[in-house]
Amino acid sequence: MKKVIATALILTLLFFLIPLILPGPDRVDEGKGTGEPGESEGSYQGDWKELAGDQTLRVLLNGEVREMPINEYIWGVTAAEMPASFELEALKAQAVAARTYALRRAAVPNQNHPDADVCGDYTCCQAYISPEQAAANWGDNAEVYTAKITRAVADTGLEVIRYQGALIDAVFHSSSAGSTQDAVAVWGSSVPYLVSVNSPEGEEVPNFHSQVSLSAEEFRSAFLAAHAQANLGDDPKWWIGETVRNESGSVEQINIGGVLLRGSDVRSLYKLRSANFTVEAKGDQIVFQVAGYGHGVGMSQYGANTMATQGKGYRDILSWYYTGVTIETYTGR
Ligand SMILES: [Zn+2]
């Protein structure tokens, strides 16, 4: 009998230790439930179908409103928003951020879908993928990744992030270049918990550096379509004026053809991966060199993963990226 208990103890210990001693994740680019096959991730247990709870959300998916237990929905968001190959603690941080974001959204009727609290469109709410679709994308890793996401969601219970008692706007992005952005630099209004902090990810992020080249004519016509008053003469080398950067190297303000723009405006106009860019005229080309990916505000997903590989837990990660917050179990708005 003692032997049986000892064996059970060792197995239990192994269950918790294996994830800790495994090497870091494969770096998956912009994974939307597409973790790469062939990895060994240790064993995770749990069935997403057991993530039921009293708390439900009305979720608009494929034109239909479904009433879902909140953590079943959060499973689909976590799987869609972060590669399942990432560290467990990073996935937990993502789950808590996604839960917070959803519950805050649910508190205010959404004009895009008044009958649903949230939807599965990432441009409106957060991305969502069903367990079946995620498993199909994961291939050979389906079983391990399904259980891993389940554990990330289940282990964080109904935890949410609050600032001075209120649910925070838990925005996140893929990767930063050196540090995250203050909300005021990107959206024009400051938020006390969305201030710039150092972020540890770097060259290990796929496509950390990217380049966008346009012909001068393409650049000019796209610019004039948005800013007809701009003065873009014949020689492209005079188009780009003074650029003001913040400490992390992101463009705060840039003068193009006499028009003052925020870096984030230029980012969306030319579909750059971030507002951390340099731009110059090279002959008949306008060339952007870009670092990082995303708006840069709030939690960096790759940064979270790097912190997790350094031994940080999900609470450390969330408290790092969202300044001055508390993490507590949700008991109502
Ligand atoms: Zn929505």
What report would you give on this structure?
With 333 residues, the protein is of the alpha+beta class. The protein has 2 domains: 37-166 and 187-201 and 296-329, no CATH class; 209-291, no CATH class. It is built from 10 helices and 14 strands. The protein has helices at 2-21, 70-81, 88-106, 131-138, 142-155, 183-187, 216-226, 263-269, 301-309, 314-321; strands at 56-61, 64-69, 118-119, 159-163, 166-167, 172-173, 209-215, 240-245, 251-256, 259-261, 277-282, 285-291, 299-300, 326-329. Strands 2-1-3 form a 3-stranded mixed sheet. Strands 5-4-14 form a 3-stranded antiparallel sheet. A hairpin with a 2-residue loop joins strand 1 and strand 2 (64-69). Helix 2 (70-81) packs across helix 3, helix 3 packs across helix 5 (142-155) and helix 3 (88-106) crosses helix 10 (314-321). The radius of gyration is 22 Å and the shape is elongated. The N and C termini lie far apart (49 Å). Zinc ion is lined by residues 110, 112-113, 118-119, 121, 124-125.
